[in-house]
Design a protein that fits this description.
single chain, mainly alpha, 55% helix
């Protein structure tokens, strides 16, 4: 038993039984009609060989507002008193053309910082009034861009102003914004500004005879003021002194100690105050119309000076024609200026129809201009000599 090497091994597997004999009726075995093909192994994908990523723990997404960020404060909070003091300093320097650029940028910074409110609106209007005190500085080529930026920014805070201040800013914007847009070299900006000028002209009311009379009276007063001599001014001084003494009929202030006025006097004072407010509003509206008309006339003059450029001639023709058709919206003096402007535009239109340029000469190409230039020139056959055949050349030839 010890020499048995196969001790403990499992018994051998049983052999398969032999195949069954064919049936007795057939001598030869039948061949199987179907053959079983071995199945191909399924290819292994590369994605199956990759390691599966470990499951990450789900973290709660924090809202965007809860994250802390480091921000720097670029605008310093200033009190109303500091803003008013800054505006007063800007007003002093903005009248100087050499300091206008810097002062206007400081004013724009105040606008962007939101410092313009109902409390500081009067000081802001004082800055704009000082800037627009000169009628020629706003169209100066060196200051044109600064004026445009200042008045464009002022229109953004127009809601913080009262009605009178809004009218003033609107009239100044016509002169500083539209007038400077008409001086540009961009055809799109030029045509857009011309369209806005046309809309402003159409929005004007019809001028009345009273306005014509007031304009004539104002012109006469200006002439009289210019013609006043220094001797007349000295003679007027004692008269004004006497009138001031007459006004001060209560030098000791005794009227304040008397009893109060009656109810009828109070009612009369209330009616008087209401009448003064109405007259003041009418004067403000008249002043606004006057300044707006003057600004539109200035825009027409600026556009007319650019008639030499071919690309803006058609736009100027339409603009001046529209102003001529609506000339009843201007005063008598302004109507005369518009008629003269329309007459000159029509003359230039007729020249263009005849093939002539703005200067009155016929339009010609480069060849024709050179042909006209060299038609009467005296050219020497000897290139080294002078072209006109001067006496010096004749002496050299002998």
């Amino acid at each position: 038993m010890e020499d048995n090497l196969f001790l403990g091994l499992p018994p051998p597997s049983s052999r398969p039984p032999p195949p069954a004999p064919p049936p007795s009726g057939t001598d030869q075995p039948t061949k199987s009609t179907t053959q079983i093909t071995p199945a191909h192994p399924v290819p292994i994908l590369k994605s199956a060989l990759k390691r599966s990523k470990p499951s990450e723990p789900q973290t709660e997404v924090e809202p965007a507002g809860s994250k802390k960020r480091l921000t720097f404060k670029t605008i310093v909070d200033a009190s109303e008193k500091q803003v008013i003091e800054a505006m007063q300093k800007i007003k002093l320097h903005i009248t100087n053309p050499s300091k206008f650029s810097k002062a206007s940028k400081l004013a724009i910074q105040l606008i962007q910082a939101g410092s313009i409110s109902a409390v500081t609106s009067d000081h802001f209007i004082a800055i704009l009034e000082a800037a627009m005190s000169s009628t020629t500085d706003c169209t100066n080529p060196s200051l044109r861009a600064d004026y445009h930026a200042l008045l464009s920014a002022a229109q953004d805070v127009i809601d913080c102003l009262n009605k009178n201040q809004r009218n003033q800013v609107t009239a100044w914007a016509v002169r500083a914004v539209l007038g400077n847009d008409l001086s540009t070299d961009d055809s799109f900006v030029f045509s857009k500004a011309a369209g806005r000028v046309k809309e402003a002209i159409s929005g004007l009311p019809v001028a009345t005879k009273d306005e014509d009379v007031e304009e004539a009276g104002a012109l006469e007063e200006e002439k009289e003021i210019k013609n006043v001599d220094s001797q007349d001014q000295e003679s007027m001084l004692p008269a004004t002194f006497e009138s001031s003494e007459r006004v001060e009929f209560d030098p000791f202030g005794l009227d304040a100690l008397l009893t109060g006025t009656s109810k009828t006097d109070k009612r009369a004072n209330i009616k008087k105050d209401a009448a003064t407010l109405i007259t003041k509003a009418e004067e403000d509206s008249k002043r606004f119309l006057k300044s707006q008309r003057e600004a539109l006339i200035l825009c027409l003059e600026i556009a007319a000076h650019r008639y030499k450029l071919p690309w803006c001639q058609t736009v100027i023709d339409i603009l001046v024609k529209h102003a001529f058709e609506n000339k009843e919206r201007f005063t008598s003096r302004q109507r005369d200026a518009i008629e003269k402007l329309w007459t000159s535009i029509r003359e230039q239109q007729n020249r263009r129809k005849q093939g002539k340029s703005v200067t009155g000469k016929l339009d010609m190409n480069a060849f024709e201009s050179l042909q006209e230039k060299y038609a009467n020139e005296k050219i020497s056959i000897r290139r080294a000599l002078e072209g006109n055949g001067s006496r010096r050349a004749q002496q050299w030839l002998g």
